[in-house]
Predict the 3D structure of the following.
Amino acid sequence: MAAYEPKKNSEIRIFESSDEMATDLAEYISQVSEISVKERGYFAIALSGGPLVSFLRKLCEAPYNKTLDWSKWYIFWSDERAVAKNHADSNYKSMKEGFLSKVPILSSHVYSINDNATVEDAATDYEFVIRQLVKVRTIGVSESTDCPKFDLILLGMGSDGHVASLFPKHQALELKDDWVTYITDSPQPPPERITFTLPVINSASNIAILATGVDKATAVHLAVSDCRDGPDTPAPLPARMVQPTNGKLVWFLDNAAASSLDMSDGAYQQHREY
Ligand SMILES: O=C(O)[C@H](O)[C@@H](O)[C@H](O)[C@H](O)COP(=O)(O)O
């Protein structure tokens, strides 16, 4: 793995293989969860959809399945598609099958998004649930933003640069006061989705964005490069707007997704090579 620190509070890790990435991700999540449990007594983690689940596979194996304090884990989703929980497009379903059913997380600690309501009501309900859990400090609170402070938010990124269900040029990117919102016009099916807003994502203690494949290379470059927005710059990518207020952002990339990064221009300072 090669690792770079492109900006304050952010790091890029680049992997030779999917197994290497899954192994490092498991160790990263394990460390973040142990620190959270030690400092707060809980570990509040938000998951996403897409290929992310397959990279959680090493977390389901030894030593983590035995050593992690799974009873302190609380599971949330940064976004969900408006489909039934048994539908192939459901982010809950893919995480249940690929991760949650393989580790001893308490089912009462799994906060899935309501699939039996309109997207508007489901977003309102989910924000209400999160507000209750912030009050009792199961989820932390950001002192600077008053938003929930998830211990870790795991995100994928689409080739258009979307994260969670925040798509380029969408008005949901502008929301400042809502914690959870809904969209009915996702450019990728299904059209109706519920999503965390940027203030919630950026208030997290730790954010990890995973991207693999050459189709993500341009979006990765635009998201992490030091270029300034100008008249010719396309609308800011949602992934570029992921800028933790007080937390840390780590990119997990394979060589293909990192292939448009120019490591020689000084924007990325290499600090470690394995
Ligand atoms: O529900 C979703 O759609 C996801 O949360 C989404 O943000 C996903 O992680 C990316 O789209 C990456 O997935 P792809 O690699 O399949 O585009």
Remarks:
- Helices lie at 18-40, 64-67, 91-98, 119-135, 198-202, 217-224.
